Amino acid sequence: MYSSTFIFRAGQYDEAFHELDRRIAEVARSIPGYVSEETWENAGEGLIQNVYYWESEEALLQLIRHPVHVEAKAKQSRWLDGYRVIIARVIREYGDGRLVRQLHGHQ
User: Fold this and answer.
1) How far is 70 from 63, CA to CA, in rounded Å?
2) CA-to-CA distance for 88 and 96, rounded, in angstroms?
3) DSSP string, 62-88
4) Per UniProt, what is one GO molecular function of this protein (predicted)?
5) How far is 52 from 6, CA to CA, in rounded Å?
């Protein structure tokens, strides 16, 4: 499994931002190999993290290369006050069983 973590500091959002953000999420969820996603906020630092999980690197690359993602990357400076992306291979996942990752569309 792979994860892609998009960490950013919010700038000025407008309707175009929300529309593009919605389209990226729809594209990601439609790609075979998409597993799930999580969003985290660090209010103290003003940072937001969107973490997507993928069955394979190929699935992740489909999103990275998709025209909607390419458009968002080109326009990010209109809405964000900085960003970085972390691509990681997930070696293992474990816990006490009380926090089960929700698969999109599955329980």
Assistant:
1) 9
2) 23
3) HHHHSHHHHHHHHHGGGTEEEEEEEEE
4) monooxygenase activity
5) 9
Say how many C-beta atoms besides its own lie within 10 A of residue 71's C-beta: 13
Domains of the chain: 2-45+56-89 (3.30.70.100)
- What's this model's pTM, rounded to 2 decimal places? 0.81
**Residue reference for tokens 């069983």:** 97
Strand partners, 42: 47
**Mean pLDDT on 43-61:** 92
pLDDT digits (tens, 9 = 90+) for 67-105: 998 888 887 888 888 999 999 999 988 888 887 766 554
* Token pair for 99: 């926090």
Q: Length of the chain, please?
A: 107
Spatial strand order in the sheet of 47-54: 34-42, 47-54, 2-10, 80-89
Locus of tokens 């998709």:
66
